[in-house]
Amino acid sequence: MDCIFCKIASGEIPAKIVYQDEKAVAFEDINPQAPVHILIVPRKHIPTVLEIEEGDGELLGHLFSVANRIASEREIAGRGFRLVMNCNREAGQTVFHIHLHLLGGRTMGWPPG
Ligand code: 5GP
Ligand code: ZN
Fold this sequence. Notes:
- The structure is a single chain.
- By secondary structure, the chain is α+β, with helices and mostly antiparallel strands.
- The protein has a single domain, classed as HIT family, subunit A, CATH 3.30.428.10.
- Helices cover 25% and strands 22% of the residues.
- The radius of gyration is 14 Å and the shape is globular.
- The mean pLDDT is 97.
- Residues 3, 5-6, 45, 97 line the site of zinc ion.
């Protein structure tokens, strides 16, 4: 499959991996938007949030627990951080393999742009 995040998860394309296990991989975003900007992706190819199924609940929960662990390691847990999952064009999704953005290390604006 011609999917950049599947290729990063399989090791075919290099990335700065910060965490991986049998279900998920986390790596530094190539174009960081904050001092901490890490992408947490399931190994399973799910194109957008719209393709998430009932049976994916445990996997999705796992992505959040990986994000929490990294936020603690990077010492942004107490200060605060943002988790974002964009869906389709108007939200700005550019890679069609779901990924949780973990953003932190600066004050975030609201509403998001
Ligand atoms: P989206 O816009 O789909 O929510 O987020 C895609 C993110 O993936 C962007 O923040 C972009 O910088 C990042 N990205 C795109 N291609 C690569 C890549 O090849 N390697 C890494 N590490 N990040 C990428
Ligand atoms: Zn994929």
